[in-house]
Hints:
mainly beta; seven-stranded mixed β-sheet; four-stranded antiparallel β-sheet
Amino acid sequence: QVQLVESGGGLVQPGGSLRLSCVASGSIFSINAMGWYLQGPGRQRELVATITSGGSTDYADSVKGRFTISRDNAKNTVYLQMNSLKPEDTAVYYCKEDVITRTTMTRFSLWGQGTQVTVSS
């Protein structure tokens, strides 16, 4: 049984920063791509940032230069450093990790439970 647990969300003023974390636990052989997605009111879930197993990153245009995705393979963790936050960043953020389980050696795309980020003055 593999699960993702997110943390780091909260209320922050415009221009502030938050750091989201997503930890995978369980019998894990390896993790390939990791990513962060957001879903706001009236919006479908959309990609924020991704990082490959080799460390290559991609970002949505709206967050380029402000957000940084990183990973710690030893801790099975993906991070999202969010700087210069804007009210439009307000949303529920979900992590996604493509996990290969040790028991079955098959890949599954897993989602975190979501963490609320609210940017407001």
